[in-house]
Amino acid sequence: MSKRGYFTPAIVALVLASGGVAALGRNADSFSPPTLSDGTPDFRGIWQARTSAYLNIEGDPGGAKSVVVDPPDGKIPYRPDALKQRDKNFQNRASADPAKNCFQAGVPRTVFLPKPFQIVQSVGHLAIVYTEDHAYRIVLPSSIPHDDGIDFFMGDSRSRWEGNTLVVDVTDLGDQTWLDAAGNYHSDQLHVVERYTMLGPDTMRYEATMDDPTVYARPWTVRLLLYRDKTPGARIEEDECIDGEDGVWHHVPPTDPRALRRHDFKAELAAAAKSQ
Asked: How many distinct structural domains can be found in the chain?
């Protein structure tokens, strides 16, 4: 998958036919989510994290807490040689962060971003559409084998239900993404298991366990809350990436007039034909 795709929430739709620390540990059995016609929990909606984990999963001295819940010390269990690479990434983060160069954020980083994402769902189908870089995931059922051997920025997702919890198994993640802006990283051997559990009508607990024997000494887990966007008419507006005059790709918001040219395919095709 190209790091700068042209897929939109509309295309994905066609394919498919509150709290704090206490809420993170709340028993999910105390809330029964709404369901689809087949009894499957209904997670449809626009959701967003309200955490600084996108800056540094492990928190920072300024007071931001680590979202790592296992190990208990809140630290990623790097292998010694991998920790050296993380420190190098941190030193060069201003230019080396793949996300700043308009690569799709990957999993689980895309969940941490301070931008909303939308869960699109119907009976037997589920997709997640993100704000940045036209990123999305078609989450297929676990009965369909993974597409092993193919690296994707957003990975290859398979799902199953454990009661009211959506469990998503993510493989085939390449090594060209980071976990946050601080240089925490993984290899192409990363395996992520996500767990989405609604704790109330507008609150969801998100957990992700990362396993990568090349980089980490053992599997480790993050946990945070997601909140439903209840703004009337809320919708996903995708960020664009455009070529800058400096030859570097730059994020621009959907309100920026420069973003519109990325959708003007007829003009781009005409210009390309004229140049031949």
From this structure: 2
Closest CA to 177 of 96, 57, 65, 256: 96
Q: What does each C-alpha distance from 102 to 27, 50, 52, 255 come to in angstroms?
A: 38, 22, 20, 18
Query: CA distances (Å), 188 to each of 79, 94, 149, 197, 275, in order?
Result: 16, 23, 10, 27, 39
The pLDDT tens digits for 174-228 are 999 999 999 999 999 999 999 999 999 999 999 999 999 999 999 999 999 999 9
d(CA 271, CA 74): 53
Cα–Cα distance for residue pair 233/237, rounded to 1 Å: 12
Residue 1, domain member (yes or no): no
Q: And the tokens for 121?
A: 């769902």
**The tokens of 62 are what?**
């300024």
Position 133 in a domain:
yes
Q: Which residues contact 121 (CB under 8 A, 6 or more apart)?
A: 16, 36, 40, 42, 43, 44, 127
Grouped pLDDT means (10 residues each) for the chain, 276 residues: 40 42 56 96 96 95 91 97 97 90 91 94 95 89 88 93 97 95 96 98 98 98 97 81 71 70 56 74
Q: Are residues 179 and 245 in the same domain?
A: no
Q: Give the C-alpha separation, 24 to 70, whole Å.
A: 14
- CA gap 249, 252 in Å, rounded: 10
Answer yes or no: are the C-beta atoms of 198 and 192 closer than 8 Å.
no
Residue at 234 is within a domain: no
- DSSP letter (8 states) at residue 227: E
Q: Which structure tokens are listed for 8?
A: 């939109």
Residue 46 CB neighbour total at 10 angstroms: 18
Q: In whole angstroms, how large is the CA radius of gyration of the chain?
A: 19
Tell me the per-residue pLDDT of 45-64, one tens digit each, with 9 for 90 and over: 999 999 999 999 999 877 88
